Amino acid sequence: MQKGMHTDTERCVRAVRSKDARFDGWFFTAVLTTGIYCRPSCPVVPPKPENMVFHPSAAACQQAGFRACKRCRPDTSPGSPEWNERADLVARAMRLIADGVVDRDGVPGLAARLGYSPRQIERQLLAELGAGPLALARAQRAQTARILIETTRLPMAEIAFAAGFSSIRTFNDTVREVYALAPTDLRTRAPKDASHGTPGVLSLRLPFRAPLNPDNLFGHLAATAVPGVEEWRDGAYRRTLRLPYGHGIVALAPRPDHIACRLTLGDPRDLTVAISRCRRLLDLDADPVAVDGLLRTDPVLAPLVDKAPGRRVPRTVDAAEFAVRAVLGQQVSTAAARTHAARLVTAHGTPVDDPEGGLTHLFPSPEALAALDPETLAMPRTRRATFTTLVAHLADGSVNLGVESDWAETRALLLALPGFGPWTADVIAMRALGDPDAFLPTDLGIRRAARDLGLPSTPAALTARAAAWRPWRAYAVQYLWVTDSHPINFLPV
User: Fold this and answer.
1) Tens-place pLDDT, residues 11-63
2) Which strand (E) or helix (H) includes residue 345?
3) 59 near 131, Cβ under 8 Å?
């Protein structure tokens, strides 16, 4: 699949006729005779090819006057994998829009984060997605409103402002335009069990492209969980979330065709951001068919891929938190890294209330960590210096690990910090920045796997051999790691 797939009419028609769910989120089908738009896998009888037009985003369909199909709910498709694969301006802008920046700071705020003028960003988004930043954010607000309408009993006025609308009238008009139903009608049509849960708790289904292998994904998160911030309980990974308007607690559990997500939010305005960060954490917008298809061309990796396809890269909900934990984990065991992190959490984290009792704190912010006394850190002096330098740069903004960061530039900035070698920079690039091509040739587990599989085991030779795995080397890392019996590779019991 390639950039701008919606322009290839023949391929799009084939995907719609075969109802291929792999293409959901890549493009949307607008039907001229009905005025609705669908995902490619819509279960209804496909329209005639001459009645189909294709758009790259739900926002573009809405701008063209089409409303969302009530059967396939195209607004709930997995996101396009392009925004996780690319680091250009459009991809970075889309990651920021998903993170709610336009709703909080407007288009000028989006432009300032990216270092371009609002006009340049508008022009590039229109050219590629058929919609500008305001229209894309509006489509996202409509989806957030739908989730709150269908899964909560919040009054409509509260939902309007929680979803980011400036007025109740705009909320009503947008919902009617996008879904061809009034907000109250949407609530009436919702499945009865979707609207009656624990007060204050939102139960959602996070879609993904199949296949998804949950073993290394949830195994990694559970095995490295920091007490007080994360835990594995009753078949779900739970953790606290630091969000723009408050804090939240999320529970994520793998299911055959979705991820079950339970969210408790201090402020419902954080819903869009919380969903975006959970999807990013679990790499749910990946295209496993494309990834596994390329890795299978290598005879060494093919048996590993065939045995358990659909591995994702476990990422993070907070890039600064992960960077700090990567430094704490330098040259120590997983258990020791968790112990170091737990001490920081207890001493400097923000306390939170967890109705289920297992979680106690938000991970400390860079500002809080930059203010601590370095002498209180129980770690070697050189790593202490690495730690204090990192948190100082994170706190003053001279190192930015946000979703808008340029992967190559940020990696170079990290390597320039004292105590930052290739492993630390690359693991941050892979799991915090989201670079799908980040590679860890110096990692002990990777070198062991390479040796056992007959691959070159020296970093330089292994990097040269891994060139054939580009641009998916971060996924190759997951398949190589699984040759070991470490707990990160197994779904907790």
Assistant:
1) 999 999 999 888 888 899 999 999 999 999 999 999 999 999 999 999 999 99
2) helix 334-348
3) yes
Mean pLDDT of the chain: 92
Cα separation, 95 vs 113, in Å, equals 12
- What six digits make up the tokens of 317? 């909900």
Q: Tell which wins on pLDDT, 76 or 247.
A: 247
Q: What gap in Å lies between CA 190 and CA 212, rounded to an integer?
A: 27
Give the CA radius of gyration of the chain.
23
Q: Of 254, 263, 366, 289, give the one whose Cα is nearest residue 320.
A: 366
Closest to 286 (Cα-Cα) out of 481, 441, 435, 142: 435
- Is residue 153 very low, low, confident or very high in pLDDT (cuts 50, 70, 90)? confident
Mean pLDDT of the 182-191 span: 89
- In 293-373, which ranges are E strands? 350-351, 361-362
- Residue range 255-297, pLDDT digits in tens: 999 999 999 999 999 999 999 999 999 999 999 999 999 999 9
Backbone angles phi, psi at 359, to 5 degrees: -110, 140
**What does the block give as tokens for 226?**
């920091």
Active-site annotation, residues = 38, 443
The three-state DSSP-derived secondary structure of 72-133 is CCHHHCCCCCHHHHCCCHHHHHHHHHHCCHHHHHHHHHHHHHHCCCHHHHHHHHHHHHCCCH
> How does strand 259-265 pair with strand 350-351?
unpaired
pTM tops 0.85 = yes
Q: Report the C-alpha gap between 298 and 462 in whole angstroms.
A: 14
Residue closest to 195 by CA, chosen among 163, 242, 147, 130: 147
365, two tokens? 């912010």
d(CA 46, CA 109): 41
User: Beta 201-206 vs 67-68: how paired, if at all?
Assistant: unpaired
Q: Choose among 138, 143, 101: nearest CA to 118.
A: 101
Confidence of residue 432 (pLDDT cuts 50, 70, 90): very high
The structure tokens 């189909």 sit at 52
Contact 122, 154 (CB under 8 A): no
Tell me how far apart the alpha carbons of residues 400 and 413 are, in angstroms, rounded to a whole number: 9
